[in-house]
Specification:
Elements lengths: L2 E4 L2 E6 L9 E6 L14 E5 L18 H10 L7 E5 L6 H5 L3 E2 L2 E2 L2 H19 L9 E6 L1 H12 L6 E5 L9 H7 L8 E7 L4 H16 L13 E6 L6 H6 L1 H8 L7 H4 L10 H11 L12
Parallel strand pairs: 4-5, 4-8, 8-9, 9-10, 10-11
Antiparallel strand pairs: 1-2, 2-3, 3-5, 6-7
Helix pairs in contact: 1-8
Length: 303
């Protein structure tokens, strides 16, 4: 992949010939401080429709998500862990085929081939040429609309590669809800943290499909929790959200904060938790006594 540099992005060309899909560009955004510590490694989020997520000059209708600016702000605020963003361009006329897991009405169904390009060519090259953390728990995938459909399909098919997945306004009506049927047929829950959303100003049928997906995911064992470290599913219906790049860009910060929250602070850094109003002095003392006993502490992975 020869590289060129545009603004803060490193742009690489990738051939899809080996997989029977179109060639395309891959755009790599590096976090602030990447060049300062050459021993540090970073989690990675792969973003579908890469030409739409960074630069208005390449984005559909001239509106980009401003993903790099959002990530830089959240990193500076210590609201997410520093990460690398990789935008994978769509291939124009082949976009529908690349992003749909099954054919419908005479088109589509090429997601398996495009998924192989992503997992067997793009990701290994990124891992070899950038300081990534290649393990599944540090690798995410996100997309919107058909890209969201693809991301959710990959979450089910390749949890060994992607442990964090976001599907924004996924077109779950494709093939009369084929992916919903696939979720319903799951025998075990893939170990993937999922973000799933839709805008309240999107088509009623799409909102119904996304709600149905949430119900199926909960039935299969995904769990909601306000704490991102404890949740395996976050579902959002976004006020004033539409089916467009501007809406997806506005909520991308919420996606990042859920998928890549900063590591939880250790107990001794948080300080002791005061007893609740219903706790007696003796029970609080006993609780402190129990907490004072030495405990084994699991090792903390560094990024």
């Amino acid at each position: 992949m020869p590289a060129t540099t545009a603004s803060a992005l490193h742009v690489h060309a990738v051939s899809g010939a080996r997989f029977g899909v179109a060639s395309r560009a891959v755009r790599v955004w590096l976090p602030p401080g990447y060049a300062d510590d050459r021993t540090r490694r970073y989690p990675v989020l792969y973003l579908m429709d890469g030409q739409n997520v960074f630069d208005p000059a390449t984005a559909f209708a001239g509106v980009a998500w401003s993903a790099g600016a959002t990530a830089a702000r959240l990193i500076a605020q210590r609201r997410i862990e520093p990460l690398i963003l990789v935008g994978v361009d769509n291939a124009g006329a082949q976009r529908t085929d690349d992003f749909t897991p099954v054919p419908w009405r005479g088109r589509g169904g090429g997601a398996d081939a495009f998924g192989r390009l992503l997992t067997e060519a793009i990701k290994p090259w990124i891992d070899a040429h950038y300081r990534t953390r290649p393990e599944r728990t540090a690798t995410g995938l996100a997309g919107a609309s058909l890209g969201g459909l693809f991301a959710l399909a990959v979450a089910l098919a390749r949890p060994d590669v992607f442990g964090r997945v976001a599907a924004l306004s996924p077109t779950l009506w494709w093939a009369d809800g084929a992916l919903l049927r696939a979720i319903a047929g799951l025998r075990t829950r893939p170990d993937v943290r999922l973000w799933l959303d839709v805008g309240r100003r999107e088509a009623p049928a799409l909102r119904q499909h996304v709600r149905a997906a949430q119900e199926l995911l909960l039935a299969k064992g995904w769990q909601l929790h306000r704490n991102a470290h404890r949740a395996t599913l976050r579902h959002a219906e976004v006020a004033r959200g539409r089916h467009d790049e501007a809406s997806w860009g506005r909520r991308f910060d919420r996606v990042l904060r859920f998928l890549f929250p900063p590591p939880p602070r250790r107990r001794d850094q948080r300080g002791s938790t005061p007893p609740s109003a219903g706790t007696t002095a003796s029970s609080a003392t006993a609780s402190r006594s129990r907490r004072s006993k030495p405990r084994a502490v699991a090792g903390t992975a560094t990024s």
